[in-house]
Amino acid sequence: MVASGCFSNAPVLNASSGVGHVINVGGVNSYVTGSPLAVLAILLVSDVYGFKAPLLRKIADKVADNGYYVLVPDFLHGDPYDPKNVSRPTRVWLKDHEPGKSSEEAKSIIEALKRKNVSAVGVAGFCWGAKTVTNLAKTELIQASVLLHPSYIVVNDIRGVNVPIAILGAEHDSLSPPKLVKEFEEVLKAKPQIDSYVKVFPNVSHGWTLRYDPTDPKAAMAAGNAHKIMINWFDKHLKK
Ligand SMILES: *[C@@H]1O[C@H](CO)[C@@H](O)[C@H](O)[C@H]1NC(C)=O
Ligand SMILES: *[C@@H]1O[C@H](CO)[C@@H](O)[C@H](O)[C@H]1NC(C)=O
Ligand SMILES: *[C@@H]1O[C@H](CO)[C@@H](O)[C@H](O)[C@H]1NC(C)=O
Ligand SMILES: *[C@@H]1O[C@H](CO)[C@@H](O)[C@H](O)[C@H]1NC(C)=O
């Protein structure tokens, strides 16, 4: 269960980064950005570093610029993984933050949004956040899903998916190696009634869409391409 790829390249967290702000939605503090009057909403489920990561908020702002009300919920409840805390190794931290457990909270958020005239919801999850997305993708609550370098996802999770799903894997990834991503693809190919997109991106490592060095033009471009694919996927399935 423990793998270093999920926990490397810790970002410097910043509670005031991003153009949005933090409010409580459906019982969960969430960074929100974009017009609250938008009828299309997107939830971004963070990695182990949570909703104060500046690059995650920047991605949320970028998605919002495409006409969405975007939320990044604090599913870690103020307790992101802290690589400096040697008395709490990853395995201990993961016990308190079991991947996928936040799907119940995500459901409350989505129900709150739907009471406020949101007509369709897309959900994307990065690393740790992916399991919450596959749990939601088994329900009728959401209309599109995206996994970015997922962690802790097994073939059975993908078998249960009932909504359009895009999976963006990395060539160098011990958590979801290309071989496993290929298996996901096979499962989805056998379900042609569910629109799917699966791609293993060359020359990138686990975490490349979120914990990249923004001053490295190649890394920034690779991440930007992934964000674009995610946004296009939401446009295809929500703006119709
Ligand atoms: C945190 O984000 C705010 C808003 O973007 C910025 O003004 C501030 O300099 C950032 N703080 C750090 C320590 O980066
Ligand atoms: C480190 O983790 C331990 C065990 O969970 C916790 O009691 C302690 O408060 C943490 N220390 C810091 C500085 O967060
Ligand atoms: C929400 O939608 C209903 C039905 O379309 C409409 O009557 C109501 O005014 C809308 N409320 C807001 C806040 O947009
Ligand atoms: C692979 O990525 C590294 C790191 O971003 C970069 O330096 C290198 O040029 C890339 N190689 C290719 C073939 O694109």
Automatic annotation (TrEMBL):
Q: Which terms does the record give in the GO molecular function aspect?
A: hydrolase activity
Q: Which residues cross the membrane?
A: none
User: Which InterPro entries does the record match to this protein?
Assistant: AB_hydrolase_fold, Dienelactn_hydro
Pfam families this protein is in? DLH
Q: Where is the Dienelactone hydrolase domain?
A: 31-237
Question: Under which name does UniProt file this protein?
Answer: Dienelactone hydrolase domain-containing protein
